Amino acid sequence: MERTYIMTKPDAYERGLIGEVISRIENKGYKITDMKMMNLDEAILKEHYAHLADKPFFPEIVTYMTSGPVVGMIVEGQNVVTGMRNIMGPTDGLEAASGTIRGDFAHNKNENIVHGSDSVENAEIEIKRFFG
Ligand code: IDP
Ligand code: MG
Questions:
Q1: Which residue is catalytic, options 48, 51, 107, 115?
Q2: Whole-angstrom Cα distance, residue 126 to residue 85?
Q3: Which of 46, 74, 102, 118 could join 89 in a cystine, given CB atoms 3.0 to 4.6 angstroms apart?
Q4: Confidence of residue 43 (pLDDT cuts 50, 70, 90)
Q5: Is 37 exposed, middle or buried (0-12, 13-18, 19+ CB in 10 A)?
Q6: 102: CA distance to ligand 1 center in Å?
Q7: C-alpha distance from residue 93 to each of 39, 89, 125 (Å)
Q8: Mean pLDDT, rounded, for 13-40
Q9: Going by CA atoms, what residue is nearest to atom 23 of ligand 1?
Q10: Whose CA is nearest to atom 5 of ligand 1?
Q11: Whole-model pTM above 0.90?
């Protein structure tokens, strides 16, 4: 069974949307097989967002992602990597369609409620990163 790494971001915690994200995952028929609340530091964010570490907006990402707890999850299901990306919507909450998590709850390109792995290969790397 395919699996992916999903993580609610600090705005989901602050706005009381963790349950909403979990419900959407479960309503789709995916199984959450592990879950934990964590506080991230800059070092792990530099690793997790290595593809963005040299961008001018990287400090904003660090400020945002360290502003409160995240909830990391291992989610299993058929084609779950692509399926979760579809449920989440594109990165920018302004461009994401209504009905997607980001389209329904996010207002910009940084604070966008939820992370989801972008490939099966990265899913395994991210699961290892956060669950060991
Ligand atoms: P993704 O989360 O949809 O996979 P990525 O390009 O991998 O998007 O970016 C990771 C995270 O970095 C985004 O979810 C968002 O929080 C933040 N981010 C990406 N691009 C920008 C930007 O142009 N400005 C501000 N934050 C950004
Ligand atoms: Mg990404």
A1: 115
A2: 15
A3: 102
A4: very high
A5: exposed
A6: 12
A7: 23, 8, 26
A8: 98
A9: 109
A10: 91
A11: yes
72-112 pLDDT, tens digit per residue, is 999 999 999 999 999 999 999 999 999 999 999 999 999 99
For ligand 2, the distance from its centroid to the CA atom of residue 88, given in whole angstroms, is: 12
User: For 24-45, what is the mean pLDDT?
Assistant: 98
The region that residue 64 occupies, defined by phi over 0 for left and psi between -120 and 50 for alpha, beta otherwise, is alpha
Residue whose Cα lies nearest atom 6 of ligand 1: it is 91
Active-site residue flag, 115: yes
Output b/e per residue, 4-23; b: 16+ Cβ within 10 A. Answer: bbbbbbbbbbeeebbebbbe
